[in-house]
Design goal:
By secondary structure, the protein is mainly α. The protein has 3 domains: 92 residues, Fumarase C, Chain B, domain 1 (Orthogonal Bundle), CATH 1.10.275; 218 residues, Fumarase/aspartase (Central domain) (Fumarase C, Chain A, domain 2), CATH 1.20.200; 64 residues, Fumarase/aspartase (C-terminal domain) (Ribonucleotide Reductase Protein R1, domain 1, Orthogonal Bundle), CATH 1.10.40. It is built from 20 helices and 6 strands. A two-stranded antiparallel ribbon has the order 1-2. A two-stranded parallel ribbon has the order 3-4. Strands 5-6 form a two-stranded antiparallel ribbon. Helix 9 links the parallel strand 3 and strand 4. The longest helix has 37 residues. The protein is elongated and about 100 Å long. The mean pLDDT is 96. The chain binds arginine. Arginine (ARG) binds next to helix 7.
C-alpha cells in the first residue's frame, strides 16, 4: 500500500480503473508545499499534546524541511502508485525519517481537514498575486487616462451615440470595476483566514490537539468553529471562482471596447505590434487577439464557477469525494488569469488613441440634443417642454442635413420660439462636456479629480 493511506481492512488493492479514477496527484501535487507546511504545524501540535517527544518532533520537522527541499528541487515527485498528494508525501517522509517516525504523523488528522486547509492556504497565496496582476491593468488604464486628459469621444448607450464624453472618463470607467474586484479579493482573503485543521474526518480530533496552534503556525487568523463545516464547506472556493469569473467579465467588457475601437469603422485606437497578431492569408490584418482571448476566457471562467456550484448543490454533510472536483476548475481559473491579465495590461498600456477621429465623430448622431434641453431648463423652461423643443431641433437638423453644432442664429426662430442665441454656445462638444461638472461627471476638472481619486483608492488596496 505504498503511497496509499489505507488498506488494512481490504483483502486486495483497487482495480486499475478504480485507481485511475481516484488518483489526483496529476493536479493536487501543486499543493505539496502547503501540505508540508500543514504537516510541520501538525507535528508541533502532536508534540504539544505529548504524542511526539522533543527528539522525535525535531527529527520530524527536519525531515519535513528536507522533504520540502526535495519537492522544490524536483528530486521527489509523485509516483504512479501514489493516490494523492497526501499519500505521496507520507511515502516521501518515510524515505527521509524512516517508517516508524514517519508513520506517527497522521495521528489525529484526516485528508478531509488537510485538503480543506490546503486549498484555503493556496487560494490566499494566489489571490494576493492576482490582486497585483489586476492592479497592473488598473495602473495602465489610469496612465492612459492621464495622458489623454482633454480628448473627447462619443459616449454611447445601446451602442448608439448618446452624449460626448472624455476618453479619460471612459477609460476610468473600466478601472473602477477592477478596483472593486481587488477589494473582493482582499475581503475573501479575510474569510479564507480560518483554518479547518483539527476538524479531522468531520467530528474533530480526540487527541487533545490544538487547532488554534496549527492555525497560527499556518498564518491563519483562527481555526474553524465547526469541524463539520470545516471539512464540508467549499463556499469559499466557489466565492473565489466567482471573483475570478467577475475579473474575467470585467476584462472582457474592456476588451470588447478595444475590439470595436480598433475597427476601421470606429478608427478610435490602434494596437501595438507587440500586442496583436497577423493573419496567415490576409497581409493587411492586425488582430486584437489579446482582447478576444480575454472575452473567450471569461466564458471559461464562468463555466468553472457554474460547474463548481452544480457540484456542491446536492451534497449532504459532511465530506464527500465529489469535493475533489473543486480543484481543477479553480486551478484552471487561477492559471488562466495569471496568463491573461498581464497581456491585457500590456495591450492597454500600448494602445494608441486617435484623438482627431474621436473628436470628429463625437458630435455625430445628434449627441448634443440633451444640451439643447438642459440649456432651456437653465432658462427655467419645464423639462418636458425642453425635451420636445430639443427633439424638434434634431428633426430640423435631420431635414436640413445639418449637425446640431452646425446650427446658426438664423435657424433658431424657424425651429422654436423658445430658442435664443445662447444655445449656440452649448452646442459644441467642449461646451457639452464641460457642462457636466457634477461629481463623477465628464467635465475635465472632474475627470482630473477622478484620476487622483483612483490613485488614492489603489494605494488603499
Ligand atoms: N483528494 C481529496 C480532495 O481533493 C482529499 C482526500 C480526501 N479523500 C478521502 N478519501 N477522504 O477532496
Amino acid at each position: 500500500t505504498e503511497g496509499r493511506l489505507w488498506g488494512g481492512r481490504f483483502a486486495g488493492g483497487p482495480s486499475d480503473a478504480m485507481f485511475a479514477l481516484s488518483k489526483s496527484t496529476q493536479f493536487d501535487w501543486r499543493l505539496a508545499l502547503h501540505d508540508i507546511a500543514g504537516s510541520r504545524a501538525h507535528a508541533k501540535a502532536l508534540h504539544a499534546a505529548g504524542y511526539l517527544t522533543a527528539e522525535q518532533a525535531d527529527a520530524m520537522d527536519a525531515g519535513l524541511v528536507e522533504l520540502g527541499r526535495r519537492v522544490e528541487s524536483g528530486e521527489f515527485v509523485a509516483a504512479p502508485t501514489d493516490e494523492d498528494v497526501h499519500g505521496a508525501l507520507e511515502r516521501g517522509l518515510k524515505e527521509v525519517v524512516g517508517a516508524e517516525l514517519g508513520g506517527r504523523l497522521r495521528a489525529g488528522r484526516s485528508r478531509n481537514d488537510q485538503i480543506a486547509t490546503l486549498i484555503r492556504r493556496y487560494l490566499r497565496e494566489e489571490i494576493r498575486l492576482l490582486a497585483q496582476d489586476v492592479d497592473g491593468v488598473i495602473s495602465a488604464l489610469a496612465d492612459q487616462a492621464e495622458t489623454h486628459l482633454g480628448a473627447v469621444m462619443p459616449g454611447r448607450t445601446h451602442l448608439q451615440s448618446a452624449q460626448p464624453i472624455l476618453l479619460s472618463h471612459h477609460l476610468l470607467a473600466h478601472a473602477w470595476p477592477l478596483v472593486r474586484d481587488v477589494e473582493r479579493l482582499r475581503d475573501l482573503d479575510r474569510r479564507l483566514a480560518v483554518s479547518p485543521y483539527g476538524s479531522a474526518a468531520l467530528a474533530g480530533t480526540s487527541l487533545g490537539l490544538d487547532p488554534e496552534l496549527v492555525a497560527c503556525e499556518l498564518g491563519f487568523q483562527s481555526s474553524v468553529p465547526n469541524s463539520i463545516d470545516g471539512t464540508a464547506a467549499r463556499d469559499l472556493v466557489a466565492e473565489a471562482a466567482f471573483v475570478l469569473a467577475q475579473i474575467g467579465v470585467d476584462l472582457s467588457r474592456l476588451s470588447e471596447d478595444v475590439i470595436l475601437w480598433c475597427t476601421a469603422e470606429f478608427g478610435f485606437a490602434s494596437l501595438d505590434d507587440a500586442w496583436s497578431t497577423g493573419s496567415s492569408i490576409m497581409p493587411q490584418k492586425k488582430n486584437p487577439d489579446v482582447a478576444e482571448l480575454a472575452r473567450g476566457k471569461a466564458g471559461r471562467l464562468i463555466g468553472n464557477l457554474a460547474g463548481l456550484l452544480a457540484t456542491l448543490k446536492g451534497l449532504p454533510l459532511a465530506y464527500n469525494r465529489d469535493l475533489q472536483e473543486d480543484k481543477e476548475p479553480i486551478f484552471d481559473g487561477i492559471d488562466q488569469l495569471h496568463v491573461l491579465i498581464p497581456a491585457v495590461a500590456g495591450m492597454v498600456a500600448t494602445l494608441t488613441f486617435h484623438e482627431d477621429r474621436m473628436a470628429e465623430v463625437a458630435p455625430l448622431g445628434f449627441s448634443l440634443a440633451t444640451d439643447v434641453a438642459d440649456h432651456l431648463v437653465r432658462q427655467k423652461v419645464p423639462f418636458a417642454v425642453a425635451h420636445e423643443v430639443a427633439g424638434e431641433t434634431v428633426r430640423y437638423c435631420e431635414q436640413h442635413g445639418k449637425t446640431l453644432s452646425e446650427l446658426t442664429a438664423d435657424d433658431l426662430p424657424r425651429i422654436s420660439e423658445y430658442l435664443d442665441e445662447g444655445v449656440l454656445a452649448v452646442l459644441t462638444v467642449e461646451g457639452s462636456v464641460s457642462s457636466r461638472d457634477g461629481r463623477g461627471g465628464t467635465a475635465p476638472a472632474r475627470v482630473k479629480e477622478q484620476v487622483a481619486e483612483l490613485r488614492a483608492a489603489r494605494s488603499r488596496l
